[in-house]
Fold these 2 entries.
Entry 1:
Amino acid sequence: DTAVSQTPKYLVTQMGNDKSIKCEQNLGHDTMYWYKQDSKKFLKIMFSYNNKELIINETVPNRFSPKSPDKAHLNLHINSLELGDSAVYFCASSGPTKETQYFGPGTRLLVL
Amino acid sequence: DQQVKQNSPSLSVQEGRISILNCDYTNSMFDYFLWYKKYPAEGPTFLISISSIKDKNEDGRFTVFLNKSAKHLSLHIVPSQPGDSAVYFCAVANAGGTSYGKLTFGQGTILTVHP
């Protein structure tokens, strides 16, 4: 029973393609996040949704579009993939204490 | 512009000894501080936290210390165990503001505990 799950785990694709990463949480949390871990290992927040409403939108290219069909899901769609998009993308969720976040296992994206 | 720095990329400790991981931050608006632990090919997992009204929080073998004047926090693990070997990230937040859970992470310290 994985609390926060992501699919796919690995994604290898060509530059210019469009791809999606899915995230689901079964913790009953209201808030979900997307983080990017780059090659220097920094984890940086990209987006946050609370009850399907966009709350945090960091300086992220508009090729990245999050979608939250319901509270338990937050998907990330990336258009026109670039080499610099290669990274590990983590989904997370949180309950009332927003800072205590539960992370998924990550999606390793490699753009060739 | 790194607001959170973990200046030691790695730390090696003998089993049973104390591990001390350090973290510095720049913005005095941060008022909530956390440590996350990460194993390879897994997501980070929450370990321990402290708010700015305290200077110490303890949970079993893990203790976090906060020095607000120095903008410094540390994580002590006593005694260290081989299973503690992982990457440790400190994270900070402005929980009293309107951060909505926005965490700013350091770049991590790789802890290796030798049997």
Entry 2:
Amino acid sequence: AQSVTQLDSQVPVFEEAPVELRCNYSSSVSVYLFWYVQYPNQGLQLLLKYLSGSTLVKGINGFEAEFNKSQTSFHLRKPSVHISDTAEYFCAVGGNKLVFGAGTILRVKS
Amino acid sequence: DTAVSQTPKYLVTQMGNDKSIKCEQNLGHDTMYWYKQDSKKFLKIMFSYNNKELIINETVPNRFSPKSPDKAHLNLHINSLELGDSAVYFCASSQEARAGYGYTFGSGTRLTVV
């Protein structure tokens, strides 16, 4: 069985500050990990994914995530956020299907 | 060109009615999915089809019936709608029936049952 825990339901941050959105996973099979972003009233857009290889994964819009097998984590980071990054972010783990976390709302304040 | 398109975008209907949501993908993917996003934004898989064959059927009331006439289309029919069916339903597709390929999502159908 697979599961994902997103440790923060909301993360407020000021513009141009760094941010980390935390994700822990549980999986009994090979791990594929993803971060998706959902802007208001829109569908989900893939930010980045980890399948294998380098544990540091770079995605779109300046986001990156680090796979840590020993801590079963896949935290998402951005060194400097913009107002336009305000959205809900979902971590997901996949095998034959994607299992999503409960989401983290990132609120960027000016 | 929209990669995964769903219709309608909004659907308001009364309890007890039957309704359908349609999904089409033009990516040439083999696998399509239906996810339900509840009021707390929690996403849960409902069904998955691979080349018109049902491969995932989660614990979903049998009032929900997916149909895949071809690998580019996956429709969702809901009978006897209930208040608890109110949610956003997302269609998605992937190249193969393995999540490692990642999913492409549609923009969602917001269903409101009154």
